[in-house]
Amino acid sequence: MPNITLKDVAKVAGVSYATVSRALSGSSEIGEDTRKRIQKICEEMGYTPNSIARSMVMKRTNIIGLIVASIDNPFMSELTTNIEIYARQKGYNLMVCNSSYDTGLEKEVFSLLKGRQVDGIIILPASNESYDMLKPIMSDIPTVFISENMQDLPESYVAVDNRQGTGLAVEYLHSLGHSKILYFGCRHGSITHQLRLEGYQSACMRLGITPNVLYSPYQRSSLEVGYRLGKEYFSGQHEDTALICASDTLAIGAVQAGYEAGISFPEDLSIVGFDNISFSSLPPINLTTIDQPKQKMAESAVNLLLSRITDPEASHSREILPASLIVRGSCRPLSVQNPN
Amino acid sequence: MPNITLKDVAKVAGVSYATVSRALSGSSEIGEDTRKRIQKICEEMGYTPNSIARSMVMKRTNIIGLIVASIDNPFMSELTTNIEIYARQKGYNLMVCNSSYDTGLEKEVFSLLKGRQVDGIIILPASNESYDMLKPIMSDIPTVFISENMQDLPESYVAVDNRQGTGLAVEYLHSLGHSKILYFGCRHGSITHQLRLEGYQSACMRLGITPNVLYSPYQRSSLEVGYRLGKEYFSGQHEDTALICASDTLAIGAVQAGYEAGISFPEDLSIVGFDNISFSSLPPINLTTIDQPKQKMAESAVNLLLSRITDPEASHSREILPASLIVRGSCRPLSVQNPN
DNA sequence: GATTTGAACGGAAACGTTTTCGTAAACCGT
DNA sequence: ACGGTTTACGAAAACGTTTCCGTTCAAATC
Questions:
Q1: Which fold has domain B162-292?
Q2: Backbone phi and psi for residue A150, each to the nearest 5 degrees, phi listed first
Q3: Which of A 18-57 have CB under 7 A of nucleic chain D?
Q4: Residue B73 Cα, gap to closest chain A Cα (Å)
Q5: Closest-CA residue to A65 (of A292, A302, A322)
Q6: Is the terminal CB of chain B with fewer CB neighbours within 10 Å at N or C?
């Protein structure tokens, strides 16, 4: 009933427990025959090494802390899945915490994870104030930010090229003949959304399009924001032929508001989202959108973190991954009446 | 640079490290004045206790292992979020692993978590073979199953009342005047789906409705299954007025197939899903469905596990939580032509 | 054949806590 | 003032590993 330890195995095998440790760790300081014998005994006794004790002496837990704003956000859960799978493949387990978009809580769980002696932390920040909050306590533990562009801050991060992303969207719509392209954005205080807006604006400039932005003062869920922005827009004058939304959920909310106002997509209005969450591909939605390469982001983040763990003194590195356009059914060429 | 330990604090405070430990643990064996003094010193030195070392001696990690088939499944991610939040509230952290619906991998991560000395494991099983696979290795660690009904197996689990759930759906449709109610199911090998089917069938019997079931031989994603079942059904004769799907994603897939066949919902066909994933409430979908009480399930699972941790010898307990009907816009009364 | 070398293994320290036990001083009642 | 109880604290063991340092013994070297 009491768990089997190295000592128990050593006693049965008639060797010191140093030898058992060597037999299992793949050390060269041991005879091939005794290694085989000890391994067999371990099998028979059902011995599993205690990683806590190992961590104690090795000063490494092989655990990565992951802090996300909300696990059940579709984008974040996809990211989380990819991170977990890749990390495990690299020999690390994941300790996951929700910050619930609360920077106070975020700081709290950050300390908690530090106390847990995780080797490093990947964080999808709750807001753009996260950095300032975390700064004083993140000095002595490898940390990489994910999904949020930290600009010139002296930190490691991996993010998608948000500016290029919305640029792609504008270019695509322009190539379909659209010139009146509205943008739905949300404040959110995040640099990510700032960059997406800038990408939209500069692409418009480049292509001779007059930017037209509708910002949200609301702070609630992105879905609701899209719905309310849509309500507001569709109730007044509207002559745009296309709409770019700062996120897929924003787009889906806007679509609903459009439905209720008698607007059809893409017949009356073309729409493109951002993120490419899995639900956007669902038939009833079928949203043309800008993809964030979630798997690559996950792997880059883990790799970045691992390299910081092995060499904490290395200079910070940033990885900005390219966004790509996913064409589905929510946009139509302006000159043609019915697509497909 | 080397982390601050109890000893360092003790040296500064001029006391033994036992005293420091007592000062922080809220022990009564210490003077109020020295406690204050030591706590202040800890603050100043930025001391954070090493939970690894604590776990070592306490033989408790305050970590719960969570194994889910796929974190990015909407239902599971909602469950995961709720589990994490509630567990942390109870002083536990979560170590999360994906089984990717692979019972082999599931067993592997189960052992891995055991080696990590987690205090207990919550598992959302990959298939109905999970139990047999896990049985030999789960004897010495508290485990509770979630979301999957383990029937009379000698294990602790919490699940929704699947039978009652589909029963509710049938009753609701019946109350709207429907009598030709089709059921879309998927094999999946899971007891959950078996129970949902049974609930449908027995409610039909009770209400004098002839059950009509379409099963899927496909094994892929639920969304695709729904789509293919729909394709198959709508291409032939179809005279049903309502459709119950074994899951929301199944329903959404079916809806798409319906669209493509020129069917409108709910005008031509009423449809009810199961699970109440958050996306079902999205306007373009707006699916009437059967809710699984995810938060309650999460909390029950944690509570069950915690009680098993404190008393591993206690007999197993099962919790079957009631399902409830969420009425949205995907069903209409049969006698009326246009709802709303 | 004596010395060196190297392999194979044992002994023991170390990791940072918690907790038991011991002990000195302070306190109490009589 | 004295024995006894309580209070506050120190010393040290324990948790299960890894690893450094010795030690032994056989093989290799001269």
A1: Rossmann fold (3.40.50)
A2: -95, 10
A3: 18, 21-22, 24-25, 27, 47, 49-50, 53-54, 56-57
A4: 8
A5: A302
A6: N
Best residue in A86, A93, A108 to probe B by mutation, most B CBs within 10 Å?
Answer: A93
pTM of the shown model? 0.93
Q: Does domain B63-159+294-320 have CATH number 3.40.30.10?
A: no
Q: Is the CB of B61 under 7 A from strand D?
A: no
In order, the DSSP letters of B127-178 are STTHHHHHGGGSTTS-EEEESS--TTSSSEEEEE-HHHHHHHHHHHHHHTT-
Cis amide prior to B266 (ω within 30 degrees): yes
Name the nucleotide nearest A10; use CA and C1': C10
Residue holding tokens 């919902």?
A: B265
CB under 8 Å to B338, separation ≥6 — which residues?
A: B267, B332
Domain ranges of chain A: 6-49, 63-159+294-320, 162-292
* B117 contacts A50? CB cut-off 8 A: yes
The predicted structure's pLDDT at residue A3: 82
Kindly tell me if the per-residue pLDDT of A339 is higher than 50: no
HSE (CB half, 13 Å, CA atoms) of A112? 22
Q: Which residues from B are below 8 Å from A112, CB to CB?
A: 93
Is residue A72 within 8 A of residue B81, CB to CB? The reply is: yes
Q: What CATH superfamily is the domain A6-49? A: lambda repressor-like DNA-binding domains (1.10.260.40)
Cα–Cα dist A184/A254, whole Å: 9
Residues of chain B in contact with residue A119, where contact means CB-CB under 8 angstroms, are none
C-alpha–C-alpha distance, residues A179 and A176, integer Å? 9
Give the pLDDT confidence of A241-259 residue by residue, as tens digits.
Answer: 999 999 998 998 899 889 8
Contact (Cβ atoms closer than 8 angstroms) between residue B204 and residue B196: no
Residue partners of B109: CB distance under 8 A and separation at least 6: A88, B67, B97, B98, B99
Q: Test A116 with B53 for CB contact under 8 angstroms.
A: no
* Among chain A residues, CA nearest to B140: A1
| B115 closest CB neighbour out of A48, A114, A140 | A48
Would you tell me how many other CB atoms lie within 10 Å of the CB of residue A262?
8
Closest chain A residue to the Cα of B114, Cα to Cα: A48
Structure tokens given for A61: 């837990």
Tell me the pLDDT band of B179, cut-offs 50, 70 and 90: very high
Instruction: Say whether the peptide bond before residue A266 is cis (omega within 30 degrees of 0).
Output: yes
Q: Which two tokens stand for residue A9?
A: 């195995």
With a cut of 50, say whether residue B44 has pLDDT above it.
yes
Residues of A in contact with B55 (CB under 8 A): 52
Query: Are the folds of A6-49 and A63-159+294-320 the same?
Result: no
Inter-chain residue contact B81 with A88, CB threshold 8 Å: no
Task: Tell me which chain B residues have a C-beta less than 8 angstroms from the C-beta of A266.
Answer: none
| Residue B210 burial class via C-beta count within 10 angstroms: exposed 0-12, middle 13-18, buried 19 and up | exposed
Point out the residue among B84, B88, B283 whose CB comes nearest to the CB of A259. Answer: B283
Distance CA B97, CA B99 (A): 6
- Whole-number average pLDDT of chain B: 92
B213, B229 Cβ separation under 8 angstroms:
no
